[in-house]
Amino acid sequence: MNSKREEGMANFRQGYNCTQAVVLAYCDRIGMDREQVLKIAQPFGGGMGRMRQVCGAVSGMFIVAGALEGCADPKNVQGKKGMYDIVQKLAAAFEKRNGSIICGQLLGLSDRQSSVSKEYRTGTTPEPRTEMYYKKRPCENLIGDACEILEELL
Fold first, then answer.
1. Dihedral angle at the C-alpha atoms of 126, 128, 129, 134, nearest 10 degrees?
2. For every one of its 154 residues, what pLDDT tens digit does the chain have, with 9 covering 90 and above?
3. Which of 9, 18, 113, 129 gives the lowest tally of CB atoms within 10 Å of its CB?
């Protein structure tokens, strides 16, 4: 792979969800087992369990940032602040490029944030990965953007 952007996008094309695609691209840097990373990242796909909340690529950035820059001491206030600063910078950079960090908005499904109520749920069954699926979704490029932003800010 020439870049993390390309690697993340290729991961998505292999069938991984947006969060998994981003985190897997950084598996070599975060020092975690591939299978473990994929399991941890899986629930965040589809905007958190296909609820179309925070974009999975954005969640992937946050997981990578935490693995690389996070602190484990619950009393380390500066460490928490530092991580929250990083998360907000990553989110702002992504939003600046794409107009939102909300999955449903990025997919053009809604102009407002999704709700967990049944009225807004999109179901739990992932769509089949066909060429049409890839053509109609911005996800691949959003994953690429997330990987580029990580490279720039971390």
1. -80
2. 469 999 999 999 999 999 999 999 999 999 899 999 999 999 999 999 988 899 999 999 999 999 999 999 999 999 999 999 999 999 999 999 999 999 999 999 865 555 565 555 567 788 889 898 888 899 999 999 999 999 999 8
3. 129
Q: How far apart are CA 7 and CA 66, in angstroms?
A: 20
The Cα–Cα gap between 85 and 33 comes to 27
Looking at this protein, which amino acid is placed at residue 60?
G
Give a three-class secondary structure readout of 28-47. HHHCCCHHHHHHHHHHHHHH
Alpha-carbon torsion (142, 147, 151, 154), positive or negative:
positive
Distance CA 137, CA 115 (A): 21
Q: Is the dihedral of CA 129, 135, 139, 143 positive or negative?
A: positive
Residues 6+ apart with CB under 8 A from 130: none
Element (H, E) at 128: none
Give which of 54, 19, 51, 57 is closest to 38, Cα–Cα.
19
